[in-house]
Amino acid sequence: MTTSTDGPMCPCGSGRSFAECCGPVLDGSRPAATAEALMRSRFTAFAVGDVDHLERSWAPETRPSEIRVDPARRWTRLEILSVVDGRELAATGVVEFRAHYDVDGVTGRLHERSTFRREHGRWVYVAGALDGAAGD
User: Fold this and answer.
1) How far is CA 91 from CA 35, 71, 84, in A?
2) Does the predicted model carry a pTM greater than 0.85?
3) Residue by residue, what is the 3-state secondary structure of 65-125?
4) Going residue by residue through the chain (136 aa), what tens digit of pLDDT does each one get?
5) Which residues contact 18 (CB under 8 A, 6 or more apart)?
6) CB of 59 within 8 A of CB of 125?
7) Region of residue 50 (left: phi > 0; alpha: psi -120 to 50; beta: else)
């Protein structure tokens, strides 16, 4: 992670420090305000290996029984392509994104449309539809 005057930059690409951006969402001290903010925090969780946040932020009916983060896959960049609804007080939202990664010097990307809903006042990830073939 590169650094700013407030510490390391957030992996999600917001341009803010980790402490100002996804850090408080990952540690549970602040809920994600929007579906996009939850998407960014989930990308960051994959980037830093925070399986607990991934589990907490996944809808129970679609959450796998075991969540693993591949340590060989280094998540390098997140592009938010579109956001449908998902504002602070909305009930649902959809975020389309590309997540770029590197595995042993080979780059790839994941292109997905993720659906989110508010559950008990917090955003959760419900499911995602991949676009294109493996790696987009």
Assistant:
1) 10, 34, 12
2) yes
3) CCCCCCCCEEEEEEEEEEEEECCCCCCEEEEEEEEEEEECCEEEEEEEEEEEEEECCEEEE
4) 455 456 899 999 999 999 999 999 999 999 999 999 999 999 999 999 999 999 999 999 999 999 999 999 999 999 999 999 999 999 999 999 999 999 999 999 999 999 999 999 999 999 999 985 444 4
5) 1, 7, 8, 9, 10, 11, 44
6) yes
7) beta
